User: What shape does this take?
Amino acid sequence: MSKIGHRLEPKTRPPEIRKKDFEEVELTVSPEEAMKEASRDIKFCAAPCSVRGCPVSVNVPGFLKKVSEGDFKEAYKILIQNTPVPSITGRVCQQEIQCEGQCVLRRVGEPIAIGAVERFVGDWALDNNIEIPVTAEKKHKKVAVVGSGPSGIVAAADLARMGYDVTMYEAFHIPGGVLAYGIPEFRLPKRILRKEFERLQNMGVDIELGVVVGTTYTIPELLKDYNAVFLGVGAGRPMFLNIPGENLAGIYTANEFLTRVNLMKAYMFPEYDTPIHVGKKVAVIGAGNTAMDAARSALRLGADVYVIYRRGRNEVSARAVEFKHAEEEGVKFIFWAAPAEFQSNDGVNVSNIKLMKMKPGEPDRSGRPRPVPTGETFDFDTDMVITAIGFYPNPLIPQMTPDLKVDDHGRVVVDIEGRTSIPHVYAGGDIVTGESTVIEAMGWGRRVARTIDKDLQKI
Ligand code: FAD
Ligand code: SF4
Assistant: This one.
C-alpha cells in the first residue's frame, strides 16, 4: 500500500437486497472511518485544490483537518460557511468531477472520499441537533424566495443568516425541488430533507407550500410586499423526442414517473393513494442522473429494465457511482441506439420501439463523440417507456411576467451577480443556467443572496 493509503469506499447494501426496496443504498461512514479517511497524509491537503473544484468553495482542507482531530462540531461550522446542507451535498454532488476531481492525492494515489466525510459530518450534526446560528442583527427588510430547490435553500439560508425576513414560496406540497420530487428515497432519504427544512425554519425562514407564483401571486404583487424577490424555480419541463408514436399509452416522462413515485409514494400503493402502472419490460431513454433514478425506481417496482442510450458506455453522463449501482442491481444497458419510432400492437399501448443503430462520429462541443445514425434499425419489444432526455426551464413565471427577459432557450437572463431585467427581482440556479447540478444551483443561491444584500444596503 502507498504511504497515503487506500481511499475509503463507503459500504453499500447488497444489490440483491436493496433492489427490492427504497431504503438508502450507501451507508454513512462511522466516526472512526471518517477520521481515518480525513487523516490520509493530511500534509498533501494544504493546497486549495479541492476548494477550486467545489462550485461553492467549501474549505475542504479545513473541515478535513477538524474531522481528523475528531472535532466534528468545528468541521460542521467550517462546512456550513459554504454549504448549509452538507448531509445533502455529501450525498448527491458529482464529487468525481468537482472537489475529488481536483484532489491532489489523485496524482499520487486515490483522492480523499470528500463526499463521504462531508455526509458523515452533516448527518452527525443533524443527529446531534446542531443548529445553524443566526447572529446578525435584524435588517427589517423582507425577501421572497420563489422555489425551494437547492438554489432557493441556499439563498434563503444565507439571507436569514444576514438578518433578512425571508419567506419561501413553493408550488408543490413538499419542499426541496428536485431533491424531493426527482431524487429517489434510496439516494436521498426524505427524512434528511425534512430535517434540513426544519433547520431552515428554525433559522426564521417562513415556508409557504402550494403557492404557484405567477398565478397565486404575480411578481408585481410580491414586489409590493417584499424588498426583493429571488427566483429559483428550476428547469422541470421535460424535453420530448418528437418522434412518431410518442403519445401512445405506457410512455411517460421521467419527471411524471419520479414525481408519482417520490412525492406521492406511489410505490406504497394501496397504503398511499396514488397508483402507478409499471410494465414488465421497461425501456428508459437517456443515461443521465434522471435516467438512472427512473431505471432504478422501475427496477424496485418489479420491472425488467433496459437503459437505451444513443452514445457509448464512456459517455454516460450520470454520476459514476449511480451508473455502477444501477449495473450492480441488474439494470441492463443498450448503447449506441436511439428511438426512431414507438409502435403499438393494439393502437393504444406501446409494444415496440424501432431503434436506430448509432455510431460514434466527430467530437461535439462537449468533447464526446457525436452519435451518428447508421441507417440500420432493430426492434425492441417493451410495455413501458420512460423518457429522460433533458429539461427546459419552467416557463410559467416568464410567461406571466412580460418584463422578465429570457433567452431563446427560456432561461431567465441575469447579469453576473444575478439581477434580472426587473429591478429588485433576482434569479439563479437551473432557471438561469438550464439543467445543471445541485451544487451549481446552490452556488447561484449564495451569489445572489450576496447581491441582494449589497443592493438592499443602498435603500
Ligand atoms: P429545482 O431543484 O428544480 O427547484 C425549483 C423549485 O421551484 C421546485 O420545487 C418547483 O416546484 C418550484 N417552482 C417552480 N415554479 C414555481 C412557481 N411558479 N411558484 C412556486 N414554486 C415554483 N444534480 C446533482 O448534482 N446530483 C445528482 O445526483 C442529481 N440528480 C438528479 C436527478 C434528477 C431526477 C433530476 C431531475 C436532476 C438531478 N440533478 C442532480 C440536477 C439537480 O437536481 C438540479 O440541477 C437542481 O435541483 C437545480 O436546483 P434549482 O434550485 O435551480 O431548481
Ligand atoms: Fe465536494 Fe459538493 Fe462538498 Fe463542494 S459541496 S466539497 S463539490 S461534496
